[in-house]
């Protein structure tokens, strides 16, 4: 692993200038490393962070990757990690023109990391540095506690997809908002409505009273307002304190909850485990936005390497080479999804649409297909709009907002179904739908979406930890439940219950009944509770 | 950006030979053995094992498929499963093209043709797979103890992922060792072409132009290592009398042998499985071989005949080192071996080793009472061809050490 040579670095700096001129924003300093394919394979299990802690699962994955490489050798052109400064990795055999293209791609990734608000919490520190400290910590713990460190890592990683990423993120942004005081929020949102259950008229009256108070007293209004409140409801202060404390605790994700409330982890001899949990949790939180912006991030990078490469004066004569590589990266597969392709085309369509003023109510209301085709308000705001999109959206909102029928029609997209043809004993791939709605649904279904599992403190009680899986139409992978719960039991130090939904077999009278063509069979969901106690799993129906 | 463009594999191979740089940013990667040892310790600590041995297969033309053995593990988490779909329908995916709704794009057979494996490994395999992965682990432990006897050079060679590195290939421009003579020859050729040399008998070396591309080097290159091909027949008696312990003993012995073959020779050893009661039948895989239970009479000759026929019809003897392992309880309706012995003689003409294991029923009392044992001894074949025929008799309640000992006797 070595830095790129001065010649290549000059190319990179040239790319930076042009990218900046086009409006991309990123830090001045970047690090580019040449790596061998072997390095790449070794970095891969560590999510490309060279300083990530050691863990045996990474070794297993590495051995598998090496095996895979023997059969299917292939190299990524580049990989970028979201660090300070941003680090990117390359193979050493790229010609200059290809490097120009790759560097633009990389710079767009960096721009995305540093401007998309879903990455807000990663802006303040450098992950490689933190990871190195974590790695040293874990190495030290291993020398003290042996392989038990690896068990704790394993059990913590088993629940690291349940981290409260959005909770943390919303917390970051909430501070920016000119907020009403917590006390005021509590009084109007919780105390009056939930605790007292006042009538609407009375509620409005209180708001008026507050507004009047504000007009009259100005800055000191809250004090005088609450003086009256306490006079009327002497219990308010107590409720407020209790209420806000509970509110805070509700926000804990499973890992935080275990760190805070597990008696086992809080025993003196086990306190070291909490540091391990913290390492796993913070690492996981760091990577959450990356999985949630894959289509956007790759689309953004592909959009820019195309736009900037074609206007770059240094690469004259390599247009055909570029076209070949570029189309390989961004082609729409006949069957299958390519995030680069979908993302790039969406950005292009948004830009074009905004330029023509099509992202407007006026256009949306237009029913005449000819008029729609001809519609052009020449607003010229395309670039501004896509910059705003890259700042504010994640994959879900991106797809949900911009994958429409125009997009699906324009690129001849469809949903492919796969069904069994019993007579020919073959799977048939067929065009299932060309509707934007279904295509969007299919895309959304492919996005990363961990289950929402919360600690329910009203149930279980005392020694038992009760987890509630909020049902979203999909069951959990049942094979994974046992070992995951085994780990939670270990960390909790007592029995663990998990409430979740599973498909029940159809009742016999229905199973035999004839069913109309194309009519989906009804799915019967049942609520089950899994219990993990003394490392054995049992299951009961709710 | 990922690409499917396969870059030259040599690069990786050469760099993998280079010594690990000191103070590497990744610590030393644990070997498979270390990982499996660590996995074994999990059981002691009261946690289930996590590492499975899987295979990656790259389908190729005919029997050319390439495969590598890799460990796999799954990090279990609470994760969404797929939403339930009707049994005849799979999850939808994306696509692009001009077909109308309902048009069929293509189809794929439900069961891939023999040999056309999928490129996935590990998780999700059936029970047959499960058996193989644990067998692999077992084979590793056994491996130092055995060796295939009488392995000979035979016609068909196969090679899988065994490679050696040799300085045999020549390369222009760069490489490890300069080939002076070849280089000189090229330099002369170039200079003749350039008209730089007027008289070939009297060359003025000071006038020669040297193009860097004229330099010829020996370069490190990867060579396939060929090994002699072996074919192992597993033959098992699954008649009614085998019910119970006798079957267990034979099966576990064959599992051990199979495991060891799997580990030691990967797929370079081909295996065939024959079961017999009154008649013989060939089954496709070890899993079926291991699990099938049928009651019936016993005729050893049927099985031997089948093995002989297979070898003859497919003319395997020419290309393969052939080994036959037969397990029985010693019962045979052909009491004096009148049919069996000729078939066995025929078999011994081409095999490298026949190993017969007899798991005696305890109820039969005195040792040496079984028909098979009696007629084998009676035939004199055991003394006549000790290099090619081995017999081992054990009680049906033999423990694992005895079984392993049995394997040694059969193949030593």
From TrEMBL, chain A:
Top-rank lineage group of the source organism: Bacteria
Domain (SpoVR protein-like N-terminal) ranges: 9-428
UniProt-listed InterPro entries: Spore_V_R, SpoVR_N
Family matches, as Pfam families: SpoVR
Name of the molecule in the record: SpoVR family protein
From TrEMBL, chain B:
Compositionally biased residues, Gly residues: 116-125
Chain spans, region Disordered: 78-131
Coiled coil: none
InterPro entries recorded: UPF0229 (IPR006698), vWFA_dom_sf (IPR036465)
Compositionally biased region (Acidic residues): 87-104
Pfam families linked to this entry: DUF444
NCBIfam families named in the record: PRK05325.2-4
Protein name: DUF444 family protein
Source organism of this protein record: Geobacter hydrogenophilus
């Amino acid at each position: 692993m070595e830095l790129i040579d001065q010649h290549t670095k000059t190319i990179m700096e040239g790319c930076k200038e042009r990218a900046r001129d086009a409006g991309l924003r990123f830090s001045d300093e970047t690090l580019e490393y040449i790596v061998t394919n072997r390095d790449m394979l070794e970095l891969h299990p560590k999510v490309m962070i060279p300083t990530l802690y050691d863990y045996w699962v990474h070794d297993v994955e590495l051995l598998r990757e090496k095996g895979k490489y023997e059969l299917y050798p292939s190299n990524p052109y580049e990989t970028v990690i979201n660090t300070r400064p941003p680090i990117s990795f390359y193979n050493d055999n790229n010609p200059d023109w290809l490097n120009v293209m790759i560097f633009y791609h990389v710079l767009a990734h960096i721009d995305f990391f540093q401007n998309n608000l879903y990455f807000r919490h990663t802006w303040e520190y450098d992950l490689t540095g933190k990871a190195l400290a974590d790695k040293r910590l874990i190495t030290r713990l291993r020398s003290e506690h042996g392989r038990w460190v690896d068990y704790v890592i394993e059990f913590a990683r088993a629940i690291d997809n349940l981290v409260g990423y959005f909770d943390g993120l919303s917390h970051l942004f909430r501070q920016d908002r000119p907020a009403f005081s917590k006390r005021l929020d509590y009084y109007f949102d919780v105390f009056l409505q939930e605790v007292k259950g006042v009538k609407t008229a009375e509620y409005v009256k209180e708001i008026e009273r507050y507004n009047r108070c504000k007009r009259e007293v100005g800055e000191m209004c809250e004090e005088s307002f609450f003086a009256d409140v306490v006079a009327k409801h002497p219990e308010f202060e107590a409720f407020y304190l209790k209420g806000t404390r509970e509110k805070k605790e509700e926000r804990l994700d499973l890992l935080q909850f275990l760190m805070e409330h597990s008696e086992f982890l809080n025993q003196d001899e086990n306190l070291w485990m909490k540091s391990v949990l913290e390492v796993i949790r913070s690492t996981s939180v760091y990577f959450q936005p990356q999985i949630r912006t894959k289509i956007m991030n790759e689309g953004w990078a592909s959009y820019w390497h195309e736009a900037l490469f074609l206007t770059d004066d240094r690469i004259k004569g390599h247009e055909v080479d570029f076209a070949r590589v570029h189309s390989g990266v961004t082609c729409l597969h006949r069957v299958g999804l390519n995030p680069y392709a979908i993302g790039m085309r969406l950005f292009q369509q948004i830009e074009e649409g905004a330029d023509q003023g099509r992202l407007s109510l006026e256009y949306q209301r237009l029913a005449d297909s000819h008029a729609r085709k001809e519609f052009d308000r020449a607003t010229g705001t395309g670039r501004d709009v896509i910059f705003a999109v890259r700042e504010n959206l994640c994959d879900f909102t991106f797809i949900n907002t911009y994958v429409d029928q125009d997009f699906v029609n324009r690129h001849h997209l469809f949903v492919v179904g796969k069904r069994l043809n019993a007579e020919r004993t073959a799977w048939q791939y067929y065009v299932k739908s060309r509707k934007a709605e279904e295509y969007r649904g299919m895309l959304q279904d492919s996005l990363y979406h961990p289950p929402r599992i919360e600690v329910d403190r009203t149930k279980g009680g005392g020694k038992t930890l009760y987890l509630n899986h909020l049902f979203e139409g999909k069951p959990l992978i049942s094979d994974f439940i046992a070992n995951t719960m085994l780990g939670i039991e270990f960390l909790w130090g007592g029995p663990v219950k998990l409430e979740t939904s599973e498909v029940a077999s159809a009742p016999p009278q229905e199973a035999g009944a004839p069913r109309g063509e194309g009519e989906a069979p009804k799915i019967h969901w049942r609520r089950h509770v899994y219990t993990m106690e003394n490392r054995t799993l049992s299951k009961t129906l709710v | 950006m990922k690409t499917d463009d396969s870059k030259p594999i040599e690069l990786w191979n050469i760099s993998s030979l280079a010594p690990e740089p000191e103070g590497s940013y990744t610590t030393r990667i644990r070997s498979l053995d270390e990982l499996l040892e660590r996995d074994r310790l999990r059981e002691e600590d009261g946690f289930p094992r996590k590492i499975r041995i899987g295979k990656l297969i790259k389908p190729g033309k005919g029997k050319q498929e390439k495969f590598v053995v890799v460990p796999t593990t799954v990090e279990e988490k609470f994760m969404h499963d797929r939403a339930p779909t009707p049994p005849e329908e799979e999850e939808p995916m994306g696509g692009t093209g001009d077909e109308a709704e309902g048009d069929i794009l293509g189809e794929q057979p439900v069961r891939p043709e023999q040999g056309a494996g999928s490129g996935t490994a590990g998780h999700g395999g059936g029970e047959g797979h499960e058996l193989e992965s644990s067998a692999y682990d077992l084979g590793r432990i056994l491996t130092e103890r055995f060796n295939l006897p009488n392995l000979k050079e035979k016609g068909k060679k196969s090679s899988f992922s065994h490679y050696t590195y040799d300085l045999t290939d020549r390369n222009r421009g760069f490489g490890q060792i300069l080939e002076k003579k070849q280089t000189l020859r090229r330099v002369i050729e170039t200079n003749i072409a350039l008209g730089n040399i007027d008289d070939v008998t009297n060359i003025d070396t000071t006038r020669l132009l040297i193009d860097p591309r004229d330099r010829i080097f020996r370069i490190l290159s990867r060579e396939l290592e060929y090994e002699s091909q072996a074919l192992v027949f597993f033959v098992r008696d699954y008649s009614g009398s085998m019910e119970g312990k006798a079957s267990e003993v034979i099966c576990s012995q064959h599992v051990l042998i199979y495991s060891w073959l799997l580990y030691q020779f990967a797929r370079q050893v081909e295996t065939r499985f024959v079961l017999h009661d009154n008649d013989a039948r060939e089954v496709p895989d070890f899993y079926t071989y291991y699990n099938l239970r049928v009651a019936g009479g016993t005729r050893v000759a049927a099985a031997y005949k089948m093995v002989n026929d297979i070898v003859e019809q497919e003319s395997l003897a020419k290309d393969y080192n052939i080994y036959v392992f037969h397990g029985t309880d010693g019962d045979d309706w052909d009491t004096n071996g009148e049919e069996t012995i000729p078939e066995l003689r025929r078999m011994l003409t081409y095999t490298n080793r026949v190993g017969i294991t007899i798991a005696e029923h305890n109820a039969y009392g005195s040792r040496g009472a079984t028909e098979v044992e009696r007629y084998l001894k009676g035939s004199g074949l055991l003394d006549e061809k000790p290099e090619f025929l081995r017999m081992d008799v054990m009680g049906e309640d033999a423990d694992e050490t005895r079984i392993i000992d049995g394997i040694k006797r059969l193949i030593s």
